[in-house]
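lol ok so funny story. i was supposed to be doing the assay writeup but got distracted and ended up predicting the structure for this chain instead. priorities right. anyway since i did it might as well share w the group, maybe its usefull for someone
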Amino acid sequence: MQLIDTHVHLNFETFEDDLDSVAQAWRQAGVTHLVHSCVEPSEFSSMQSLADRFPELSLAVGLHPLDMDKWTAETPALIRALAESDERVVAIGETGLDFFKSEDRALQIAALDSQLAIAQALELPVIIHCRDAASEMLAVMQRFWQAQGPVSGVMHCWTGTPEETQQFLDLGFYISFSGIVTFKNAAQVQASAQMVPCDRILVETDCPFLSPVPKRKERRNQPAFVKHVAECVADLRHQPADAFAAQASANACRLFQLPVSL
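and the output, tada:
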């Protein structure tokens, strides 16, 4: 089984002491490529250093909606400059909306609009974080689509209902499932995983968060565990795991234009 983990955060401190071992584990698990997402532009240099160290890493650059205190008038130009500075950048993000206990909704929407515009200008997909904000996210995207035209991208670590899933599929988005889909109480997410078209589904770990079953006792998630996500989704869709993994990997290559030979 060959897999692409489409969302990782390997520059977090929890990986500092044993990242070579973590890399060995993901290679042994059949993970051939990874997309390293970005929380804020200041971490981009550390991500580049990791990509120098591990050539199977591609990069994204953006500002997470929970980090709006770091958004300034200069941030859009910085994100664009960083994206243009390194050919390993394959996406803008992660960006999006997170309205769980939020008090800065207007600023989040403005920052999302700005990053959608950057992605469109550079012809890159966006990696979208969406928590407790599906209806608002859909409204933002519909307004942008009508005014500026569509942008490609993925709803990452997706937890929406099948109805919400269909709405983002209708906008042309891919849907990516994390370890959450393996949880016993994740019936809504599992239902969404069953109805996404075969050419629009991705898998990820979002490591170091959200360790999947059967690795829940390991508080630190890692890329090698994406195989458990893939096996769960394949089972939900009544597909052989190898066939599903091949399809999800091909989808990732298409969306992110990855330099990967499958």
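The CA atoms of residues 107 and 150 lie 22 Å apart. The mean pLDDT is 97.
back to the writeup now i swear
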